User: Fold this.
Amino acid sequence: MDWHRDHVYYDLTPTNNIGSFDNSYSETITEIRFLNPEAALSAISDQVGDPIIHTSELYMNAHDRDNFHPNMFWTEGYFEFMVIVLINGKNGVGSTISKKVDASPQDLFEIKYTHFKNPSNSWFVIDGILPKRYKLNVEILPWNLDSYSTAWKFEMYEMDPSQETNSQHTISSEFATNFEFSVEYGEKVKVGLKFGASQKTTETSTFSVKTELDDDFLGQSILSFDQPIIVSRVSHRPSNRPPRPGGVEYRTREITFGNVLSMSVEPVKQF
Assistant:
């Protein structure tokens, strides 16, 4: 299979094997989803101030029951997440990019409940919680293979501010070497799909990552340039989501952080 990102960033196809880098696209976090919602909620709602389900049953009289909303099961507040991306550079310097993501519990979880009622009273009982796909638009940076490694490491934390701590990470990464200066383009171009006919090189970098002592580590994952962007076509679009340009819906590849959560990262045109 050809690399989707070869086509996005370099306009390479089986019939066009030379292309210059298009920096109008950037890798972007477009969605996160908790895979095991009950375990995830237990892990991230562990500090004072974190949103929690404050009751599993709500009682209302017949007059007030029309004002019920599932949000009433939650305490106020929101979660703060930190996504840390570790990227090796060809100059041997490791780049650490940190992105904050805020989310309310209603963004992440759907409460399933049963409504019981009699002529004078109503009560709502939680049956369970389901994961929701939380749509995002968090730009990271353009993936230029001439500068950056073929794989990026992602770490995810739920933030609970306390004492700052530092950790060191040493990562070896592969780099594509099929780049050369083109007189026709007036700049460096990628020659050949994938790694072309050239050999890969390997560089090792050390990263320093700053977190808080009480932050909840939710896992780590790897995204590589050769992984597909689109994995399937969606036959039915949710009614609450506007159609994509052209009216075609696709499911993008998700990277997983253990059995805790998944994240969609894809190149998005910025200008």
User: Anything to note?
Assistant: The chain has a mean pLDDT of 85. The helical segments are 4-10, 37-44, 105-108. DSSP finds three helices and 18 strands in the chain.
